[in-house]
C-alpha cells in the first residue's frame, strides 16, 4: 500500500544555507527507496483551522520503504541540515487503496445507517 512522508514546516523567515544543501542532496536519498516528491513546499489554502507554513509530501511504494528511507544512513547524514534550521513536524502514514469506501468504514464503525 502506498505510504507518505508528510512534513509541515512551521517556521517562517529566512532559510539557512544548510537547508539548500539538504535540498540538493535529498533526492539521492529517496531514489533507492522509490520515494518521489508529490508536494514540495506548497502553501496550503486553509479552509478550516490554522495551518502556518509550507507542506512537503513524499510518496513511497509502502510504509516499509518509507521507514527504511528515514532510517537510512544516507538520509540520517543530511537530516541535521534541516532539523537544525527549520521547525516542523514529520509523519509517515499509509494510504488507502482504490477500493477504499468511506461508507463501508462508517458502517463498520457505527453499524449500518
TrEMBL record:
Residues 2-96 form the DUF1330 domain. It comes from Amycolatopsis rhabdoformis. The lineage of its organism: Bacteria, Bacillati, Actinomycetota, Actinomycetes, Pseudonocardiales. SUPFAM superfamilies: Dimeric alpha+beta barrel (SSF54909). Pfam families: DUF1330. This is DUF1330 domain-containing protein.
